[in-house]
Write a structure and sequence with these properties.
It comes from Saponaria officinalis. Its EC number is 2.7.11.1. Keywords: ATP-binding, Cell membrane, Kinase, Membrane, Nucleotide-binding, Transferase. It is an enzyme of class 2 (transferase). A hairpin with a 3-residue loop joins strand 4 and strand 5. It is built from 15 helices and 14 strands. It is of the alpha+beta class.
Amino acid sequence: MVSKKTTWESILPSCFKPKLSKPKPKPKQSEPKRVQVVPNSPQRLSISDLSNAGSDVSMNDISSSVIGAYLHSFTLDELRVITSSFSYSSNFIGEGGFGAVYKGFINDKFRVGLKAQTVAVKVLDLDGPQGHNEWLAEVIFLGQLRHPNLVKLIGYCCENEQRVLVYEYMAKGNLDNQLFRRNSVALSWLTRIKIALGAAKGLNFLHEESKPVIFRDFKAANILLDASFKAKLSDFGFARDGPDGDKSHITTEHILGTKGYVAPEYVMTGHLTIMSDVYSFGVVLLELLTGRRSMDKSRPRREHSLVEWARPLIKDPRKIDMIMDPRLEGQYSAQGAKIAAMLAYQCLSHQPKTRPTMRTAVKTLESIMKMNDIPRHFVYEVPKDEVKNLNGQNGNRLRHYALQKRLGDYGFDSPKHKNR
């Protein structure tokens, strides 16, 4: 029996432009039946099941579609209310490859079945690098996939030429900003491992789907963080379904991704596998360990590429301290850092088959979270009788005395230190 190819028109029938020639009316009984999709089931609809994925979308609403049955369809007028007319001064969050992102709020009276919540509204930049296909990919993947470490897509808007996506709001923004934004508070060791673990769980879920999903653009900017720093993967515009059957890879027409994160074999051959994501995960793990960007041309030339600079060092446990983020101030598990560095080294292997699975990465990071050998800062407390006089005439002398006492007991002038 030959199976009929599912089309976007059969799933989102009201979202496509009609042909130029006026079609003849058809009797109701001849209309194609819609395909029913159960999220996360073996029958999950994938992009590879669809034809005409590049078709233009019309102004028509798609709320009656099958994918729409799991999401809310918003109008532009509704989104204006939610975002205070897309206010730049009070609601603008940031901007990425897809377009601008605005903060919004939905109250409990907005719509039946939609709870009161803060949301993030992402508006496609019609002149930007992404477009219709990326919007469709986001809807098809996040309209069906549900996992604690994937950002939740609440709904979408397909009106006129506008393409909008509405997500749950993530209070801490993305990992890129938390790690690298100027004046940001340094993330603690356990917070960094927690983020890496959450992201690893998200990738592992995608890779172990009955139809594996290759994220393809895994990077710090696509890892969102909630108020408790729980990590969730976002931006599925470049995601692809993995190879079917006995195929070892899929071949893409264009190499997509972000420089510094893309696996070398994908760049050279165009062959894409789940191990391409594992390589990208290794880069992000390095960023968490070092506090350095994957690409940074403000550094000396040999340190422009984080992977090229760090990879020779992380394979030697004795050199791990040389690559650790100085903002951690030594407050990290020495054993945990060595294990995390070795995991990153394995993920960055030039041979895709020798890289660990994301399931292995999850187990490794879970073991690091349990380690409690994090050193504590020593704080010297000045005696109360000395504090009273610190701002008096003898202030300088007492401060000097306190400093000498500290150095004598714990510093380089101590007999204990000299006898080492």
